[in-house]
Amino acid sequence: MSKRDNLYLVGLMGAGKTTVGRLLAKQPRHLARLSRITRNFRKGLKRSNANEVTLPPLDPDLAAMLRAYFTEDIQRLSKLLERDLSDWLKAPEPDPAGMITAAA
Q1: Any residues with CB less than 8 A from the CB of 5 and at least 6 apart, and which?
Q2: Are residues 8 and 42 in the same domain?
């Protein structure tokens, strides 16, 4: 069985039309290129997820409605996980700046 047949067998090639399939069917230097591409993609994804974002405050009425709506689900999840999730049901302390900061 040839290398190309093996690639078809594991589903990495679909009639040679996928980029991954074409790169894998060529010489090992293309594997290094594919590895660099994926590594750079992962680095960029991590960088974009590490940026700090300032979010506007959630309307207190909406927050109370969401807490009431999800109370039963949170209690069931708490029992399932055998963890105390009661903090999820408490109203948050107001921030003096009026803004919520979260990592995006």
Answers
A1: none
A2: yes
Range of the domain at 13: 3-50
Choice between 60 and 4, residue whose per-residue pLDDT is larger: 60
Mind listing the pLDDT tens digit for each residue in 31-67?
677 788 888 888 888 887 777 778 888 888 999 999 9
CA distance 72 to 86: 11
Q: Number of structural domains, the chain? A: 2
Q: For the full predicted model, state whether its pTM sits above 0.85.
A: no
Residues 74 and 42 in one domain: no
